[in-house]
Records
---
Amino acid sequence: MMDIAPVLPRTASGPMVLVVDDDEDVRDLVTFKLQMAGYRTGTAADGCTALTLIGELRPDLVVLDIAMPGMDGLSVCYRMHADPATAGIPVIMLSGTATETDVDLAFVSGAEDYMAKPVNIGELVRRVSWLLPPRP
């Protein structure tokens, strides 16, 4: 099921961030805060939909949950970075755990950053802007 968040008209020229999380509340909160910071957003609730949208939308950055039903975030990130067309898209991984192994797996799969849940949304927006400054 494709689940794309509305795009705010005032951010039509801002960078596109795809938010992927099976928790609707997390998706909605992250999407809202990113839109308020000037980013266009899309959303997906699972890994398979995320891969489809990444191929279609070519987002500038992906915020990706690790633990999702079906295809997990690690597999999505690995497949993204194995494809030359999407390999350059930065990924921030989100996870309910922050063991050394989980963090290592995220970076090995190609993620640029890792945040443990519950995520400090202000910090997430700062990290997005560090990896991808909004355009004027």
Note: The chain is about 40% helix and 20% strand.
---
Amino acid sequence: MRFIIMCSTIASTNSNEQAITTAGIHHLGLTVPNLQQAVDFFIEQLNFEKVGEKPAYPAIFVSDGSIMLTLWQAKDADNMVAFNRQNNVGLHHFALRVSNLEELQALHAKFLKLDDVQIEFAPEPLGDTGIHHMMCYIPGGIRLELINA
């Protein structure tokens, strides 16, 4: 027997219910084909710090002081299926904020020199917002947006 649970996005009209809201992302877990390569990228290129690990998983936790990433080693990296943002359900990309356009441009220049990072597009305006962003694939093929918001 299969059960389907339907959820409504319509707010309750019961005034006795207290609204519950979230307070941002605590951490984001990413499965990677090469754990040490991913850890090195975040520490060496984006100045994250290692804040923990679970060797039995294996997983390493890194943080920039605002967000923590849990990086998990894929069990069988040789037979993994790469994510296709047009055909798969799951993480399309994640975005990290930088302080200003100069930092965004500096990261772009830095990433251009790396063999294990693929630039999807260079820093460009995000519509008429005054914000700029860029998109790249980090080691292991996960799509990362950097944005000066």
Note: The first strand starts at residue 27 and ends at 32.
---
Amino acid sequence: MKQWLYLAGAIGLEVSGTLALRAANDHPAWIALVVVGYTLSFALISLVLREGMPIGVAYGIWAASGVTLTALLAALLFGDALTWVMGLGFAVIVAGVLLVELGSHQAESGHTAPHDVHHEPEGAR
């Protein structure tokens, strides 16, 4: 449970840092929040990994959530474009992360495909 709280914090801080980066274009003082947001986000991601979440799952959720939340909030805060194609992209990103998450659970339970499957051309024996 702790790993999910750390991950949520890491996502929130990364999104805050990224939005502050956009705001720093107009007001350079926002750069302080950029540095703090990214630094603390990476610190929390390291705690997520220390708690045992696989890196592919942690990074996938962190990145997908960051992209989606940043785009949505940038549209709200800065008037950035938000189109149905972008919405479709968010859905594809989320689907991909869900597949990685499901795959990690399969690997934990031992239901993985064999790693050493070789297909020899006929007559190669």
Note: Helices lie at 2-23, 31-50, 55-78, 84-109.
